[in-house]
Design a protein that fits this description.
The complex is a heterotetramer. Chain A is mainly α. Chain A is 73% helix and 3% strand. Among the domains of chain A are: 261 residues, no CATH class; 67 residues, no CATH class. Classes of the chains: A mainly alpha, B mainly alpha, C mainly alpha, D mainly alpha.
């Protein structure tokens, strides 16, 4: 069982090396088989591991070798497979495999085909290391490795400088988060003398709740999560990351990488429970991001941008769940989100593929006839994300809202508001792309064709998962066994599951409020975009103030530009001038001063003998007088 | 006996090369000599036993009356630095093997002379001898930069020479002061000199003199004005030697002389030095962002890295020192690789202005991959050599004081900013006419690039052996500090 | 009685020294200088340093002054146009001289001026000087002869026209 | 002639000191004032003589012949110095047709 656990991450690494080293010569089919094959095998192993864990066996620990012999302890290069990480394993390898198959078709005519798959495999490897790592340092390796791969993949078409800037921006923002994560890690190391989860959690549990050091450490770790999972304030990189190919957005910016932050918080729940202040901060940031991103998404016109902002808002929900202590709820939402968001992105990809690269929804419309399968799966995804029963989104979001309701009514209200907005902008997107008249150019019209088999099959599988995802954790109120809860309970142990306190009646009531609200919003969206077929305003025309603000993403990018980038560049100029003119000049000054001094004493050599004689006499007199003085 | 041959071999080779006067095939001779030295180094590595304080000792009385002995010996730290030198010099020589190579045999003679001086510095266990090799190392680099440098090379090299000479004079005074203070039959033996218990007043001045000498060499913040110019003006091999190995002499000096001899003042002044070093760190990184020219950007980035190393040195705990020693070695390889890349770009496009470059990745993928890996190494991405050093150093500094480490941490972000900015502007984007004909790595260049990549990754994945060798030296250095440290160091 | 002799001799010497400076034409100053040398010889005799007195007259008055006169006449330098230094230079010179005089006297005053001893000390006599000169100071004496040789060769070489 | 001054009383040394100092200073002023090289030489001679006299006085005073020996050697040096000095004077005269000391100012800083 140990070798199996070790093999899961190693396989993608091997395939990365094979493809990476001779990406010039490998023919396309060979690379695709190699890449998808390695991920598939890892998936199979993960399934085996899953059943092994489900069968009640304890966690699987594998230490490959002793990595850094630091003073306090030696940090090992070791993996652990327990319920939480095996769930993530399934998501990463499962959804990853589907996306790999999808991208064979999508990237078929791109000359960087081999390079693309080598990066994708490197990404899967780093994600697996992040998930399987048994100490924070291993997680950090995955953390930065994933950041690097997202940089490589966003800037995949590196010809276009704008894409490169987006990639650089993503990496640097991740790096800011990583700094927070690193510092949090250091505090844990200094405080508990080790970074292994077991030892850290064991020692942490001895401390009293609200302990200052723990709060700081958890806060800093959460900063890392903000950077990675694109929460306020470090979320602007995610929409720009849409510059990468669509499978990349699906894999990295929907299913796996961005959920790393959520996984990290869930993994160190033992620390977070002892730091209620951080939990509140997480909840607050989560809900604000959810609302903030939802409002922006309403007015976006690029299909991928809308989905990006919806990802940010759904991540906000996950963090609300974590903030409320509903760790299983958050993980459940993470899983379902991975399914339907990957589905939505891939469907959007096939729409873009069909439209010959066009991403502006104002130029689409009426694609139902041309792309029936994409239409169907897109609809399934949209319904799932809007939280309409019996689709998966409903169950996962509802569980989070339930916990929110028990803990803090205000957050629950905001949560409901957010999910209404989600329903609205998702269906707005759906209707604008598929319903109504086709607004694109004629050339695009002929070019419209349904995506090839290799792309539609993953879409269908994901659609099924998006629909059936809810079965994983049907709450007691519907007679379900909330199987995910039981599965994850050894990790989250007692966990914070005050479900019992709220009677079934109120639970049903809450759910119905959310559902009816969403249905109303869908109706309103239908009315607005299908009945009266209003098309969002083209860019040139003046918009009413509010929608203009939202369309320009609250001018966040410009603000960051102004607040951070400009001062740093300005500072750099100043420092450079300071360096050249002050420090350099002082050193040169010292040099020149000695030369000048030499020149000055030159005036003594007048050449006039009389002067010399007098100088001699006077100095003798001075000496004698001095002699007398002493 | 081994240390002596490690020093004499390159010395002999350089003499032969000087006499060769550009006869055919002197390149090969230089390469063979440095490879032989490499073999010797590896023999030393295998023959090294961690227990003994002083490996391969060699003692011979030199000037009896003054108590100066011709003695050598390798501690763990000096073995690692000798290995760094021994690994880097063949690569540096290999980087000069290309078609339009205008270097004469004297050039290689100077490189090998410098190698022997550097090995001498790292292995001598006699203060006087240490100073001789310290100065001896300065002379060849002066000629290398002065004769084969870039524009207005004479002025800049002279400034560098005098600046460093000034530093080493301060160091000499401190050495002599310690010499006088050694018990009756005064001796220059470093271990006895360092054991001398100086009263506080004197210790301050000795600290100041030593620190000034080493600070100029490293360089530390206010004394760095010679560094960017010299690195830019020096020929590729020159800046590799300077940045790769020479600045390690300063750090080695601190570890070998400063910390053991004036330990109390070191603890007392650790915050001051840390602030200086960290200002240098941030200062260097911020300036590097707006640099227009590759070599100057690398110079500032190396200055920033070195700032972090010096700061970690003064955190005075096992993790920090282990991290610094490890970073010394990885920084050596990274900076040599970076200068090699700058040299390749300069040779193919004969411009180093970043905005004139673009789209090289399209034309030279192998070069782009090599540049990417080296960049990741210097940006300290996990699984590269930079990360281990950086991680251990920051862990050490957190144990010293959290806020200092937090500020030093910012350099990781800034490092990523200017490195990725450099990579993007030169590698990605539209291929400019200048970079259109950018030939990919030739076989000789591959001979340098591939080993460097292997070392960067290997040191990142499996650092244990190196850290094991460095551990005894770190322990012995900190052992003398233990009683003093309890009273003073503020924690967190 | 000796006091009078001493003072007359001193007065004469100082007067002639001043005249050396003041006189317009160089010949006059040479002659005054010779006069001054004679007074100094008188002093030697007073000190009973007879050998010195004689040698002094021969060497200085005889040889050196003759050289001066010789040069004077040869190069016809006996022209009246007195080269005048600027007033400022001369005033500073005099002040410097005065200062030096004061300090010299002040410095030497500190000596333990023990009382006068009888005049007839014999050390000044030729026999005594001779004995000492050729015993302890043999080497300097020989060195002096070499010095003379060097001076002569130098003088001749310098002035010889190619 | 051997003891012509048989009964004479020696003057106290301070007289000789002041007298010789005066002579020395006069010689020195002469050197500073005069622009005529020849007179400068003469003043130097004067200074030397004043020193000789003082030396002789001290030698007699301390009853030690070394003083007088030294006087002899000073005379030797003075003679040599005058010889060389005058030849330099002749050469300078030949070069710039005058023995004015101010002309000799080529060695300038």
């Amino acid at each position: 069982m140990n070798t199996l656990a070790a093999l899961v991450p190693i396989l993608p690494l091997l395939s990365f090396l094979v493809i990476g080293l001779n990406f010039r010569r490998l023919p396309k089919p060979v690379t695709s088989i190699l890449a998808c094959g390695s991920v598939l095998v890892s998936f199979i192993f993960s399934v085996v591991l899953f059943f092994h864990i489900k069968g009640g066996n304890p966690t699987v620990n594998v230490t490959l070798f002793e990595w850094i012999p630091a003073a306090a302890t030696s940090l090992g290069f070791s993996f652990v497979v327990d319920p939480l990480s095996s769930l993530m394993l399934l998501i990463v390898t499962g959804v990853g495999f589907l996306i790999h198959v999808y991208s064979i078709g999508y990237m078929h005519d791109d000359e960087g085909f081999n390079r693309f798959f080598s990066y994708m495999n490197l990404f899967v490897f780093s994600m697996l290391v992040l998930v399987l790592g048994s100490n924070y340092l291993m997680m950090f390796i995955g953390w930065e490795g994933v950041g690097l791969c997202s940089y490589l993949l966003i800037g995949f078409w590196f010809k276009n400088q704008a894409y490169n800037n987006a990639a650089k921006k993503a990496f640097i923002m991740n790096r800011i988060g990583d700094l927070g994560f690193l510092l949090g890690m250091f505090i844990l190391y200094v405080q508990f003398g080790s970074l292994d989860y077991q030892t850290v959690f064991a020692k942490a549990s001895l401390l009293e709740s609200g302990n200052l050091i723990l709060t700081i450490a958890t806060m800093l770790l959460f900063v890392g999560a903000i950077g990675k999972s694109a929460q306020i304030p470090l979320f602007t990189w995610l929409p720009d990351a849409m510059a990468g190919p669509t499978p990349v957005s699906a894999l990295i910016h929907a299913a796996t990488m961005v959920t790393a932050g959520v996984y990290m918080v869930a993994r160190s729940h033992a620390l977070y429970i002892l730091a209620p202040a951080t939990m509140m901060v997480i909840a607050v940031i989560g809900i604000t991001t959810a609302l903030f991103a939802a409002t922006i998404a309403i007015f976006q016109n690029d299909i991928k941008k809308v989905l990006a902002y919806s990802t940010v808002s759904q991540l906000g929900y996950m963090f609300v769940g974590l903030g409320m202590g509903a760790f299983t709820g958050a993980m459940f939402h993470l899983t379902t989100h991975a399914f339907f968001k990957a589905l939505l992105f891939l469907a959007a990809g096939s729409v873009i593929h069909a439209m010959g690269g066009e991403q502006d929804i104002r130029k689409m419309g009426g694609l139902k006839k041309a792309l029936p399968i994409t239409w169907l799966v897109f609809l399934a995804g949209t319904i799932a994300i809007s939280g309409i029963p019996p689709f998966s989104g409903f169950f996962s979001k509802d569980e989070i809202l339930l916990h929110a309701y028990e803990q803090n009514k205000v957050i629950w209200v905001l949560g409901i508001l957010g999910s209404l907005m989600t329903a609205f902008y998702m269906f707005r997107l759906f209707y604008l792309t598929f319903a109504g008249m086709f607004r694109g150019t004629d050339k695009q019209k002929q070019h419209l064709h349904e995506s090839p088999k290799s792309m539609t099959i993953p879409l269908i599988i994901l659609a099924v998962l998006a629909v059936a995802g809810g079965l994983l954790n049907i709450p007691a109120v519907f007679g379900g066994s909330s199987s995910l809860n039981t599965f994850l309970s050894p990790i989250f142990g007692s966990g914070v599951e005050p479900v019992g306190e709220v009677s079934y009646g109120t639970e049903i009531l809450l759910m119905s409020i959310a559902v009816i609200g969403s249905l109303a919003m869908i109706g309103f969206a239908w009315f607005r975009f299908v009945k009266t077929a209003t098309i969002p305003v083209t860019d040139g025309i003046k918009r009413p103030a509010l929608s203009n603000l939202l369309y320009h993403k609250y001018y966040i990018d410009e603000i960051y530009q102004f607040l951070i980038e400009k001062p740093v560049l300005w500072l750099s100029d100043i420092m450079h001038l300071f360096d050249v003119y002050v420090i350099d000049k002082t050193v040169n000054f010292v040099g020149n001063a000695t030369v000048w001094l030499g020149k000055q004493s030159g005036f003594l050599q007048t050449g006039n003998i009389g002067f010399y004689l007098i100088a001699m006499v006077l100095s003798i007199v001075a000496f004698l007088v001095f002699g007398l003085m002493i | 006996m081994l240390t002596i041959s490690l020093i004499l071999l390159p010395l002999l080779a350089s003499l032969i090369l000087f006499l060769l006067k550009d006869k055919k095939g002197f390149h090969i001779l230089a390469l063979v000599a440095s490879l032989a030295e490499l073999v010797l180094g590896i023999v030393a590595l295998f023959g090294f036993d961690k227990g003994a304080a002083r490996n391969f000792p060699f003692d011979a009385m030199w000037i009896k009356s003054m108590g100066i002995s011709f003695s050598f010996g390798m501690s763990g730290l000096s073995l690692l630095l000798v290995l760094l030198t021994v690994f880097l010099v063949p690569m540096i020589i290999l980087t000069t093997f290309h078609r339009d190579n205008k270097y004469s045999s004297a050039f290689y003679g100077l490189i090998l002379l410098m190698q022997s001086a550097l090995v001498g510095v790292f292995t001598s266990s006699d203060g006087f001898l240490f100073y001789i090799f310290w100065e001896m190392a300065l002379i060849p680099i002066y000629f290398i930069c002065g004769l084969w440098g870039g524009e207005n090379k004479i002025k800049i090299t002279l400034k560098f020479f005098i600046y460093t000479m000034l530093g080493s004079l301060f160091m000499l005074t401190a050495l002599i002061w310690l010499y006088i203070k050694t018990p009756a039959p005064h001796t220059f033996n470093i271990d006895t000199m360092v054991m001398v218990k100086l009263p506080l007043g004197e210790q301050f001045w000795v600290f100041l003199a030593f620190f000034l000498g080493f600070a100029i060499k490293i360089p530390v913040f206010p004394f760095h004005s010679w560094q960017p110019d010299t690195y830019t003006v020096a020929p590729a091999a020159g800046s590799m030697l300077l940045a790769g190995i020479m600045l390690k002499m300063g750090l080695y000096g601190i570890l070998r002389f400063l910390i053991p001899s004036c330990s109390f003042t070191v603890i007392q002044f650790a915050p001051v030095v840390m602030i200086m070093a960290i200002t240098g760190l941030l200062y260097g990184s911020v300036i590097a962002i707006k640099q227009k020219e590759i070599k100057r950007l690398i110079a500032y980035s190396s200055f920033a890295h070195v700032g972090l190393m010096t700061a970690a040195l003064f955190a005075l705990n096992v993790d920090a020192l282990q991290g610094t020693i490890y970073q010394m070695i990885s920084h050596g390889f990274n900076v040599v690789a970076l200068f090699f890349i700058a040299d390749i770009i300069q040779r193919r496009t004969n411009t180093l202005q970043i905005n004139e470059l673009g789209g090289i990745a399209k034309v030279a993928p192998r070069f782009a991959v090599f540049f990417m890996i080296v960049m990741l190494g210097s940006v300290a991405l996990p699984l590269t050599n930079g990360f281990i050093g950086e991680f251990l150093m920051l862990v050490g500094m957190v144990q010293y004081s959290f806020y200092v480490a937090a500020i030093a941490g910012i350099s990781i972000i800034l490092g990523a900013v200017y490195m990725f900015w450099l990579y993007q502007r030169s590698m990605y984007g539209e291929t400019k006419p200048v970079t259109a004909a950018f030939a990919d790595l030739t076989s000789t260049e591959m001979w340098v690039a591939v080993p460097l990549i292997i070392i960067i990754i290997a040191m990142g994945v499996y650092p244990k052996p190196i850290l094991e060798i460095a551990k005894p030296t770190v322990e012995s250095i900190l052992f003398s500090l233990k009683p003093l440290k309890e009273a003073i160091i503020p924690v967190l | 009685m000796e006091k009078y002799i001493f003072f007359t001799l001193s007065g004469l010497a100082i007067f002639s020294a001043i005249m050396v400076l003041v006189s317009k034409r160089p010949v006059h100053s040479v002659l005054y200088l010779i006069l001054c040398f004679f007074t100094i010889a008188g002093h030697y005799i007073m000190l009973n340093a007879q050998f010195l007195a004689v040698v002094h007259i021969i060497v200085y008055a005889g040889a050196i002054m003759v050289l001066f006169l010789f040069t004077l006449m040869l190069l016809n330098l006996n022209l009246a146009n007195e080269l005048r230094k600027s007033i400022l230079a001369r005033v500073t010179a005099v002040i410097a001289g005065g200062l030096l005089l004061v300090t010299l006297v002040a410095v030497l005053k500190g000596l333990d001026a023990s009382g006068p001893i009888m005049a007839n000390t014999q050390i000044g006599m030729t026999t005594n000087i001779g004995k000492v000169l050729f015993n302890e100071y043999m080497f300097p004496f020989e060195a002096a002869s070499v010095l003379f040789l060097a001076a002569m060769v130098g003088a001749v070489m310098m002035v010889k026209k190619e | 002639m051997n003891n012509v001054v048989q009964g004479l009383q020696l003057m106290p040394i301070s007289y000789y000191i002041s007298f010789c100092s005066i002579l020395f200073v006069i010689g020195m002023i002469g050197v500073l004032i005069k622009r005529n090289a020849l007179v400068i030489f003469m003043s130097i001679e004067l200074m030397l003589n004043s020193i000789n006299l003082l030396l002789a006085a001290f030698s007699v005073y301390h009853n030690d012949p070394a003083g007088q020996i030294l006087v002899i050697f000073i005379m030797v040096v003075a003679a040599a110095e005058v010889a060389v000095g005058l030849s330099i004077l002749v050469v300078t005269y030949r070069k710039n047709n005058s023995i004015d000391v101010n002309l000799l100012n080529q060695l300038k800083g």
